[in-house]
Amino acid sequence: MVGYKRKEFDHSLKLTYFEGFRHDYLREHYLPTLNRFRNEGVRATHGMRPVFTTLTYPNHISIATGMYPEEHGIVHNSFYNRLLKLTIGLDNRDDGQWSDPKKIKSAVLFWPACHNEFYGVRSLIYSWLYTDNVSFREKIDNAIGHFRELPVQFVIEPDKQGHTYGPDSPELYNTLLRLDFDIEYLLDKTKKELNDDLNIIILSDHVCKR
Fold first, then answer.
1. For residues 102 and 120, what is the distance between their CA atoms, to the nearest angstrom?
2. Long-range contacts for 65-73 (Cβ within 8 Å, ≥24 apart)?
3. How far, in Å, CA of 93 to CA of 16, rounded?
4. Is this prediction's pTM over 0.85?
5. 52 closest CA partner among 41, 62, 43
């Protein structure tokens, strides 16, 4: 057996999540930065299969935990805890029984339940409340200093425009263009401040159908 020294990798990882981003948007619309990102990077040949095709939260928790809904137990955007006699969801998220602190810190932005304290411990470096009132670019600016701590960012677009105006509306296309510009901004910011020392994953959970 020949011994060798394992190569150390200093690259960090960032996860960006566009809700409702349909795979064929890249083909049907002019999105140069996202297409360059896809063509010059690594992509899933057959796309990503959501574990729950109609709701957001089960997919979010599966991405965060690596478990299927039948394992992590979240099968809806809200659920009823029979022990506490309490509905947990958008209006009430402070159920401390669903996480066990492991002394591992992460930087989380606007991810569902990201601001919760579990057993009196907040296992995050920082977080902001889950809201759709903050632009993606503002999230980038706020997070750039924490890109060494596995930052995850949730962006409610283009899902919000798809539900409001339709999946093929001009409003949705304008939102896609803005997201494309924001990704270009993110890449430029990463190159200048992190010397390209960052791996970025862009994904989505479900789509808006015609």
1. 13
2. 73/98
3. 22
4. no
5. 62
CATH number at residue 142: 3.40.720.10
* Catalytically annotated residue among 33, 56, 175, 190: 56
> Which of the 8 DSSP states describes residue 62?
H
72 occurs within a structural domain: no
Non-local (6+) Cβ contacts of 175 within 8 A are 157, 158, 161
Tokens of 114: 């990201």
State how far the Cα of 158 lies from the Cα of 171, in Å rounded to an integer.
9
The contacts of residue 48 (CB under 8 Å, 6+ apart) are: 203, 204
Whether 109 contacts 139, CB under 8 Å: yes
Per-residue pLDDT of 1-47, as tens digits, reads 333 344 455 667 888 888 888 888 988 999 999 999 989 888 887 77
36 touches 186 (CB < 8 A): no
**Structure token pair of residue 145:** 């200093």
Range of the domain at 42: 12-53+100-203
Q: Let me know if 56 is a catalytic residue.
A: yes
Residue 7 is given by DSSP the state: P
Q: For the chain, what is the domain count? A: 1
